[in-house]
Structure formats: structure tokens, C-alpha cells
Amino acid sequence: MDERLWEGNVRKVVPYTPGEQPKVLDVVKLNTNENPYPPSPLVKKALEEYDYNRMRLYPDTNSTVLVDALAEKYGVSTSEIFVGVGSDDVISMAFLTFFNSDKPIFFPDVTYSFYDVWADVYKIPYEKQPLDDNYRIVPEDYKKKNGGIIFPNPNAPTGVLESLETIEDIIKANPDVIVMIDEAYVDFGGESCIPLTKKYDNLLVIQTFSKSRSMAGMRIGYAIGNEKLIKYLNDVKFSINSYTMNPLSQICGAMAVKDDEYFMECNRKIIATREKTMERLEKLGFIFTDSKSNFIFAEHKTVDADHIFNELKNRRIFVRHWNAPRISNRLRITVGTDGEMDILITALDEIIGNYGKE
Amino acid sequence: MDERLWEGNVRKVVPYTPGEQPKVLDVVKLNTNENPYPPSPLVKKALEEYDYNRMRLYPDTNSTVLVDALAEKYGVSTSEIFVGVGSDDVISMAFLTFFNSDKPIFFPDVTYSFYDVWADVYKIPYEKQPLDDNYRIVPEDYKKKNGGIIFPNPNAPTGVLESLETIEDIIKANPDVIVMIDEAYVDFGGESCIPLTKKYDNLLVIQTFSKSRSMAGMRIGYAIGNEKLIKYLNDVKFSINSYTMNPLSQICGAMAVKDDEYFMECNRKIIATREKTMERLEKLGFIFTDSKSNFIFAEHKTVDADHIFNELKNRRIFVRHWNAPRISNRLRITVGTDGEMDILITALDEIIGNYGKE
């Protein structure tokens, strides 16, 4: 397309590329870390009971029903919770609100690929800190002067979990900036640092309903931190879009939180499937990190990731692969049901067995 | 609360204050321009047929079903449509994308009170252009050097409609910036400038499902413009939150668009109620603009707006009032059902009759 007169005034960015969402239904979808189990039956009930006439009204700007449920679940006050349209909305808003310094923000070189995209769109300077050879964070790297810190725990796409001691060490060294811990995958075997928010007023913990609560479609994320942080976040949110979360997400989200038993049961199943799948992958010649998430970050000893990725895709099995430094020979495989893992393992067995023979 | 060490790095803003959302149900709610009629019955059906199991999956990032329905309705290509979580989300994203100049953007002094909030949060310079004494836009004001232009048509909270000629005149004079026309209320008697997007590649038209489509709760807004504008908007959107719109909003939204007959019927009813209510208000001593929206912007000849506002509130009737220059003696009254208007008129008759006697 031609260059137009107004182009000089446009903010131009290289957008984030999300994992493929295949239009056909008969695929094994292990590429976007969705939960293989449906949401709680209480969610179904809430959906059925919703009176569609209420759609004509603006939603509750404070998402009271959802915030109340989260406050009870996590033992914090409602003034310590911020909710948004998925954790991407929450983190994006937190970048805009808290990463407002001239000094660079820090995050790992191998991590959620949205961080540098947000930094670019909001013109926030950043500096990536390299993980060590085992994909672990080097705490000393985060003790230099900076404008803020963010990393996921467990990290994505590695699945590696850092201890609360490591996190506390980093928070302590940075009292003058906000430290954000993105706990998208923490429910699959990690320990949350939410309790540390009582001790450190510069800690913001972000979680999501997209993975462990089986509600990626309903776009619900939240942040927990001291009430002053939450107030600043809400001020910015109310300066961008006062009414972000629709009533169905609010009500269904609250019901999902209330059904703690179902939640724990699904998490247990996914962890069991993950551990079993790891054993089977090991026998096929894969190496991987000790993932505490709902995905496995695997590399084959002899077969290229790129080859496996394409062969799986030919068999309608979708996993994730990045042509990025340090991880280009890795595959990120979402933990599905046991049945889905059987299909995956059978396919991998075939792909690896055939390798070099064609 | 005490000042913390990290406060210097926080983006601090004065947020937008939305109209009150009373928690109790037995009120006459004429303060946020919601539609008094429910959404199309096709929306109800779509909600009932939705399989809650699908919630576990991420939504279609392109909102294909909704964009397709809008493209058909407005006779444009799908690449000329951008959708967001309410028109606030769309406009906010458009500010960030297109108002990226050092020169001030222009909008009226009396207009939607979110424009200066967005400009502040994104650090966009702006200059308000005064409406004339009849709350009309003065086109010459918009022919000075600027970084972009936005106004609603019909304007809010005045309800005043500008002609397509006036709008075309302004667009023609500004080929080097983006001109945004916010048509939140256009379905209640205005003429849309969507056809002008074929002629001017710097025009972006924004509409919403919150008013004429009775779906404020589901948070759906959209912009129509040439495909290059839409591409830039999508690039920024995909740099902030790839998955913004949940599948229920996408499906229900598409169904609302398909039911054109129901949509036209509700609009006709609201227009008829507005005209009838204006006659009755005139008899009570009110003056008002010739509103082409679903609200009436009224001032009483002798009784203060503030007094009427509070007396209505005492009677559980909510309207909107701003303590802002040039409009502090006005009330913005949403057009509800005929029954709600009867309650309003009875109350106003009493309030005005009692005035000075207490």
C-alpha cells in the first residue's frame, strides 16, 4: 500500500503473534496451554441462569462479585485485587502504570514473548537478563539500577520454577521499583508469592483464569498487591475503559473460584498426566526442564524441533515452536488429557522412528 | 497513605467518572443512556445454544463471526472493520495509534468527557475548540494545524447532529491527520458518515453496541475505515492484548447485527418516545437542543438543574448532571420506555410545582 500523508503520526509496532487457533475441530491442540477439562459445573449453571435482558445494562465497573470471590479465596482484602480482561490486559495496564521510569526494566532473555512487545508499544526502555544454561534466573542480574522487573514463575516457555527465597531476594534489592511476578502457571505445582504482598508494598502478583481455571475464552486475569498499587492501577484502568469486564465473565469467574474442589481435582489430573508424559518422552530420547506448569519444554537429542513440529502438524497435532535464540530446538507441548497424550506419543514414536529413513 | 520509594515511577492520572450504577433494582435509570429494550431474541437463542465447554479455549482473535456480520450490514470489506471491548476500548486504542504527533489534537469544549482523560493518560497534547452558543461545531476552528480530530456525531451530551457536509469539509481540510467521528448515538436519527470512508482514507468512524443494540453489558464497539488504518489499529491491539473479545460477545453481537428488523423497530420506538417526551418537557418550562440521540439535554427556565437532579434522585430517578462549564444548568435524560417517561414527567411536574414553596 502507498504511503499516506498522515503516516508520520501513526504509532507503528511489530505485534505479538499468538499461537495458531485452527478453525477445524478435529485436531489435537497442544499449542496454547489451554486446559483440557471444561470449567466447573457451577460455571455452567451460572451461564444457564443468566437473564439475557440484563445485557442492555452496563456491567458493574468494580466486578464486585468476582473480586469478592477472589478476596475470600486468597485471604486478601478486596482493595488488594485488580481484575482485567485476561492477564494480558492486567500486565499491559501494569506496564503502563508502573514502568514509567527512564531506566530500563528487566526481564529474562527467554520468557513470555509479550513483554518486549508491551515495552515497545508504550516506549518503555528494557534490558533482557540472560537465564543461565539451565534456564534459571541469576538474581544478581536484577540488582543493577532498573525501572522495574517482571518475570513469570514458573517461567514460560521453560516451565522452570524459582523459589520464594530467590524472589524475595530480588524484591528486597529493589525497593524503589515495582516487581511483578506473572503466575499464569503457578497452580500446576508452584508456590505462589501472594503472601509476600503483605510484606512488600512494591510486589504485584498476576494470575489468570485461562489455564488452571479452564476459562481462556472468558478473558479474566487479576493482580494482587498492596492497596496503593491497586488504586494506581484502577486509576489508569478507569482512564482507558471503565467498563471492561462483561457480566457473564464476572459471574462465571466468581463461580469458578468458589468451586475449589473441582479446581484442585483438575490441577491434580494435569500434574499426573504431565509427569507420566515426561517419562514417556524420556524413553523416546527427549530432554526437558523440570516443568511445574501445564506444558513440557522438550528437545530431542537427535531430531530437529522444526522437523518434529512440521511432522506433528501434518498429523493435525499442534504444538508451539519459536525460531528464537536459545530455544529454536525446543518444542512447548501443552499437557492435555491422557488420551491426547497417547495420540502425541504414538505420533512422536513414528516421527522419530522414521527420521533419516525417508 | 504514605509516599513510597517507588512512587516517582508511577503514572498518575485523574480517572474518568462513569455515571452511577445503583445497586438496587427499583430505580428509574435514565443516567447512562442504556437502551430500555432487551437485545434481539436471536441473542437470547445464541446464548442458550452456547456450549460452556468451549470456554476453556482462547477466543477467535479476529472475532470473525462478528466482523463478517458487520461487513455485510455496512457494505464494507472485513479488512475495513476493527472490533474492541466497547467503543471506549476502540477509541482509546485509536488515540494511542493515531494521535502520535507533537501538535495538539482538537475536540469540542463540550463533548464526551473521556477524550481529555485518554489524552492525559497517553500524554497526547490537546486543545478544546469551543462550540457556538447553540452547541454547534465551528468548522473553521478545525482548520488550524493539529495532530488529529475527534468528535461525536450526534455530539454528547448535547445530542446535536452535524451534517455530512460539515464533516466532509473538516476531513478535506485535514489530509495529514486522522479524523475520528464517534457515532455512538447515530442510529437514533442521525446520518452515518461510514460511506465517506470510501472517499477519505484518513476518516475513522466508531460505533457501539451499548446504545442502539441494547448490549452495553457485552462490551462491543467497532471502527470502520480504510484497510490501512484498520491494519495499524490491529497491530497496536495485538501488541496490547491479542484476545480481547470473549466468544459470547462475538456470537451474540453477530446475532444482534443480523436481526436488522428488531433493531430498526427499537430505534423507532425510542425516537417516538423522545419526541413525545420533548413536547411534555416543553410544557413544563424546559428548553433543550434538537436531540438526535437517545437522550434529551434539558435546562429549566427557572429551576436549577442541581435542584432537579437531587429531587429526582430522592425519588429514585437517576439522570446525569455535570458541574462543568457551560453545561452546569443542564440535565442529560436518557430516553427510556413510555412508562419510565410517565414516571419522570410526573416527578418533574411535582418538583417544579413545589419549587420555592418549601
Write structural notes for this entry.
Two copies of one chain form a homodimer. With 358 residues, the first copy, chain A, is of the alpha/beta class. The first copy, chain A, contains ten helices and twelve strands. The first copy, chain A, has helices at 41-49, 64-74, 86-98, 115-121, 164-172, 227-237, 247-258, 260-283, 305-314, 338-354, and strands at residues 28-29, 81-84, 105-108, 126-129, 149-152, 179-182, 203-208, 221-224, 286-288, 295-300, 317-318, 331-334. The first copy, chain A, has a five-stranded mixed beta sheet, with helices on both faces. In chain A, strands 9-10-12 form a three-stranded antiparallel beta sheet. Chain A is globular, with a radius of gyration of 21 Å. The model of chain A has no long low-confidence stretch (mean pLDDT 95). The interface between A and B is large, with 88 and 88 residues.
Strand content of chain A: 5-15%
Helix content of chain A: 25-40%
- How far from one another are the termini of chain A? 43 Å
- Within the largest sheet of chain A, what's the order of strands? 2-8-7-6-5
Question: Could you give the order of the helices and strands of chain A?
Answer: EHHEHEHEEHEEEHHHEEHEEH
* Morphology of chain A: globular
Instruction: Give the largest interface.
Output: A-B, 88 and 88 residues
Number of helical regions of chain A: 10
| Uncertain stretches of chain A | none
Average pLDDT number of chain A? 95
Using only C-alpha atoms, the radius of gyration of chain A works out to 21 Å
**How many strands, what sense, and barrel or not for the largest sheet of chain A?**
5 strands, mixed
Structure class of chain A: alpha/beta
Assembly type of the shown chains? homodimer
Number of strands of chain A: 12
